[in-house]
Amino acid sequence: MGRYLEQTESRSELQQKIAADLRAKAAARAKDEGRADPYTANPEDIEDSAYLKGTKKTTSLAGAWLFIFILALAVFIMFVVQASK
Fold first, then answer.
1. Are 40 and 49 in contact (CB under 8 A)?
2. CB within 8 A of 79, min separation 6: which ones?
3. What angle do CA 23, 50, 38 make, to 5 degrees?
4. Residue 52 CA neighbour count, 13 Å, CB half
5. Contact criterion met (CB below 8 Å) for 3 and 12
6. How far, in Å, CA of 81 to CA of 59, rounded?
7. DSSP string spanning 62-84?
8. How far apart, in whole angstroms, are the C-alpha atoms of residue 70 and residue 49?
9. Over 90: is that where the pLDDT of 6 sits?
10. In sequence order, which residues have a C-beta less than 8 Å from that of residue 11 and are 6 or more positions away?
11. Is the Cβ–Cβ distance between 19 and 10 less than 8 Å?
12. Rounded distance, CA 60 to CA 62, Å?
């Protein structure tokens, strides 16, 4: 049979042990990779990532394109409403 847990207890002992083991493994892996804390994001890592190669930053025209998209969506919705009458 299953073990009875109090309603106030959010995690069982097994869940706490598994979570502690996973945190220890993540810390060990981060230590091997040269970072002390695996839960802090390093902005240099993000900027140097391989998946960013060949991408461009958003231009100043992004606002204009967003406006055009919203306007086209509004025209489409108006068309659907007028067609359904």
1. no
2. none
3. 15
4. 10
5. yes
6. 34
7. HHHHHHHHHHHHHHHHHHHHHHT
8. 33
9. no
10. 19
11. no
12. 5
Give SS3 for 55. Answer: coil
Burial (CB < 10 A; 0-12, 13-18, 19+), residue 35, is middle
CA distances from 31 to 24, 35, 38, 39, 46 (A): 10, 5, 8, 12, 18
Q: Specify the amino acid at residue 70.
A: I
pLDDT tens digits, residue range 30-62? Answer: 777 665 565 565 666 566 667 777 777 888 899
The length of the chain in residues reads: 85
